[in-house]
Amino acid sequence: MNENFHQKPVTFVGEVSINVMNLDDAIMFYQDIIGLQLLKKTDRQAVLTTDGKTPLLTLEQPAGVTPKEGRTSGLYHFALLLPTRADLAEFLRHLLQTKYPFGAADHAVSEALYITDPDGNGIEIYVDRPSDRWKWADGEVAMGTDPLDGNDLLEESDREWSKLPEGTLMGHIHLHVSDLRKTEEFYMQGLGFTVVNRFGGALFTSTGGYHHHIGLNTWNGVGVPAPKENSVGLNWYTLVFADEKARNEVTKQLKAIGAVVTEKEAYYIVADPSGNEIHLVV
């Protein structure tokens, strides 16, 4: 039940690229445990998909790759949004059968399972509750972290899991940052996102009334450095804009707050104040 929070004219996260220690091992994990499919592969890169055409996750093994560093900015988790609650039930059953370790939470707006890949990259697999059941007050959406009722979820479907369904989307990304004030200016005044929830050193931001497309937190510490370029973790993520006009407007806003925007052939690149790289695509 994907609503209209991940299609134009909403600005949303489209694809995420992460570094891994060993490409072949990572491909096996993302196929066998997560259920993505290989779209294309080179010696140092693999692009993964659910529908056989749309890239969702790109794995990179950079030269001289180093393990994930603690207490830096970068990836907290990327989150794959499943089409239906039955899909999440089947994925939960798969995790229980494989005995792969996971966490779980009920966030009021969604139900979520949390996994860490073998290199320490965080992954959320979740399903949204219908948006008419989300509770808003004064421009903020109510989100919590309560125990997930796994038995109730499992009753949603008795089908065996085989892979992630074709309609799976990159639902959101959640990042470690070093300074919430600078981060808020960048994402609000620069990228044009709206803060929809704040608590405990975190901002949740979105466009189009979603509960969040981008989460941002200082839970690794205020003032933490960016990780080394070749370490395990986030390479970049894409923000998909409605059209050239919308993207051009945002690049003007970014430059107005002092951000450096670099133009490539098919996209623009900008980094947030903590060094998280974003590709602006149409």
Automatic annotation (TrEMBL):
CDD domains linked to this entry: VOC_BsCatE_like_C, VOC_BsCatE_like_N
Record-linked InterPro entries: Glyas_Bleomycin-R_OHBP_Dase, Glyas_Fos-R_dOase_dom, Glyoxalase_1_CS, VOC_core
Keyword Metal-binding listed: yes
Keyword Metal-binding: yes
Pfam families on file: Glyoxalase
Keyword annotations: Metal-binding
Highest taxon, organism lineage: Bacteria
Transmembrane segments: none
Domain VOC: 12-128, 169-282
MF terms (GO), sorted A to Z: lactoylglutathione lyase activity; metal ion binding
PANTHER family found in the cross-reference section: CATECHOL-2,3-DIOXYGENASE
Protein name: Glyoxalase
Species this protein is from: Peribacillus muralis
